[in-house]
Amino acid sequence: MNLNRIDLNLFAVFDAIYTAGSLTKAADVLCITQPAVSNSLARLREMLNDPLFVRTGHSMTPTPAAQNIIGPAREALGLLRKSVQESHTFDPATAEISYNFAARDLLEASIMPRLTARLQSIAPNITLTNYDISRSNIVSSMASGSLDFYADASSAFVDPHLCKQKIAEDRFVVIARRNHPALSQGLNLDTFLQLGHINISQRRTGAGPIDVALDRLNLKRRVVMRGQHFLTVPAVIVKTDLIACIPYHLAKHYECSIYELPFELAPVEYFLYWHVSADHDHAHMWLREQIEEVVTTFHPSTSQPSTSER
């Protein structure tokens, strides 16, 4: 039997006939016509190569094959009905769901701890997993259900099968080791350009937002080290006289001095992506609401200190 030919609607008709004992009563239960019930039964008979029911007087008597099938069929239909019902009556306190994320280290370090802490109290059986994935595989992974969310500091990722929402914004600041000999009087543009920089980018070459902004001013910084992850920056900063530009909500967790950029730069924006098939799923919608709640602190501070923050 070819499983691709199975129509679950046929088993709903089969269950109704088995329960009602006649095609006419089954049609009344299903709110369809008696010919439609007969047609469904004929298709199921052909697919299973068994008559399933034989007429006995005014009733339809199930065959041994039908008696063997009815239990598993009802169990499968029950599971399907339960799944559909739960999709409309999501209860976070009892839900057992695992959500898969693909997010850069910055978002993993800043958002995931807040989200996990929030879920521990209101949805203790929900688990989160974050892993790296090639951008070229995001859409197919979401379509297959193996990936639920993709988060990135980019709005340029466009695909008709994905939904997108801006969830937060932040600002870049400069970090340096404490008591840096060149920064005792604060950070100005000349010092910023003279010092060696750590540049964070997943690409081997190319300009990032800092370099693009400087290029508009016909300026260029001195990049000494190029790395892929923001989380490795502090380990280098505390051992050298290098500086780095990183988002404030990450910088504030480190034992470093923080300085405002000595030039204008637009805020960095964070976007959440998910597949269109999950857009109206109640459980998925609920988790998106929780993400929105935990990122409410990710707005650029209105204060602009002139020297450093501790």
TrEMBL record:
Transmembrane segments: none annotated. It holds the Pfam family LysR_substrate. InterPro entries: LysR-type_TF, LysR_HTH_N, LysR_subst-bd, WH-like_DNA-bd_sf, WH_DNA-bd_sf, YidZ_PBP2. GO terms for molecular function: DNA binding; DNA-binding transcription factor activity. Residues 6-63 form the HTH lysR-type domain. Keywords: DNA-binding, Transcription, Transcription regulation. Belongs to the LysR transcriptional regulatory family. This is PCP degradation transcriptional activation protein. It comes from Paraglaciecola mesophila.
